[in-house]
Amino acid sequence: MPNMPQFKYFLSHKENPAKKNSQIWNTLLPMSRKQRQNDAGICVSHGDYFTAVRNFLEQERSEIVTRAVSQHMHRDVRSEEIEEIRIFLEKHGEFYHPARIETMLHGTAIPFVLNVAISNAGKNCVQREYGLLKQLNEDFPFSFLPKVYGQGRVSIAGDEIRMFLGEWFQGYNEFHISLDPADEKYKIVVWDHEHGNYFLKTDQATNLYRQAARILTCYYNAESFEQILSWHHGAGDFVLKRQNEKIDVKLITARQYRPMFKNNGINKEPDMELILEALLVFFLNLTIKMRLDRLDGVGEIVWSDDTSVDGILKGFFESLALKPPIFSFPGPLIDCFRNHLLSCNQSDLFGLSQAMVDAYNPQSPEIPVIKKNLKRHVKILFDAIKTAS
């Protein structure tokens, strides 16, 4: 019988081991950063969690994790080569309790992420998200989203837990708007658990918004109107890596990919006017949602600094320049859209933005924050568009 890897369990760091029969092993998991009422009956302990993760990783003689390691190493790896598997419970998110999986191969740690769905909200989206990540990585030539390696389910403590294994973006960290005690100003703080949290400089924050807007625009389909939806800075959906003062941004999730609205033309290809108007809606929605976050990731809804607008605008147009030509258009999409955008006055942009916000879920806690800032946002955006042109 082949040797099986040794399993070890931790809370985020090696300094916080979770051992069987310890107090933490028997303590119940919080269901998310904020407990949902419809998850009140779900009771899963830390020990149940680690056991379920281990059972998943051991299924079919560790077939999924062995395949993931093989892809990472660009060679066939046998399960017996994996000496140890370390499971780190990273956080309690809105949809998942993600674990960092460190597979030890000849003394080298190869990390992956295991998105573990325990809550009802997480279970409802885990299979869909796995399929979307796989589809988007196949359909687009980008590496902004994590690769996925396999999915499954495990029954433990009377509950079914669903999960999928994906790529871990090594060195990337979650970030949020926070109050800098040094000068009492709101800035972007990066949660770097290894080297210590730090605040971004203004130019770095602008670059962050540029890259995030570029990523979402890269996955926008101008002819079908399909786009990545249900993302939110408050959920930590984007992550950031800093190296030599330069930053790089990735998107770790794709919960929905569909048109924001339907083309009402039956069996009719969208014409130039409809494509440009749909792109305008995408653009304005992007500029609004990109500015929303939760204070320190768990607090009240907050609005980003005005300097973020320049970054969002630049990232959007950078990506738009990469879009393939559309047969019915007289020129590149970026030129046609720029002309369309410049034909709109400030009142046009505000009216359309207001109509979009009115269509949002009225129960959303974002609505009061957006409405409070919308008029100023559109003015700053309009001025930036004129300056950029």
Provide a descriptive summary of the structure in words.
- This protein is of the alpha+beta class.
- The protein has two domains: 6-167, Phosphorylase Kinase, domain 1; 173-388.
- It is built from nine helices and 16 strands.
- The protein has helices spanning 23-26, 46-73, 120-139, 202-218, 272-289, 308-320, 333-342, 346-358, 366-388, and strands spanning 6-11, 13-17, 82-89, 99-105, 108-117, 148-156, 159-167, 173-180, 185-190, 198-199, 226-229, 238-243, 246-251, 256-259, 292-294, 301-303.
- A seven-stranded mixed β-sheet has the order 2-1-3-4-5-7-6. Strands 10-9-8-12-13 form a five-stranded antiparallel β-sheet, covered by helices on one side. A two-stranded antiparallel sheet has the order 11-14.
- Helix 5 (272-289) packs across helix 7 (333-342) and helix 8 packs antiparallel against helix 9 (366-388).
Shape, principal axes of CA atoms? globular
Radius of gyration: 22 Å
The helix/strand order is EEHHEEEHEEEEEHEEEEHEEHHHH
Helix content: 25-40%
Distance between termini?
A: 68 Å
Q: Count of helices?
A: 9
The low-confidence runs, each spanning 5 or more residues with pLDDT under 50, are: none
Mean pLDDT: 91
* SSE class: alpha+beta
User: How many domains comprise the coordinates?
Assistant: 2
The overall strand count is 16
The main sheet orders its strands as 2-1-3-4-5-7-6
Beta-strand portion reads 15-25%
Largest sheet: 7 strands, mixed
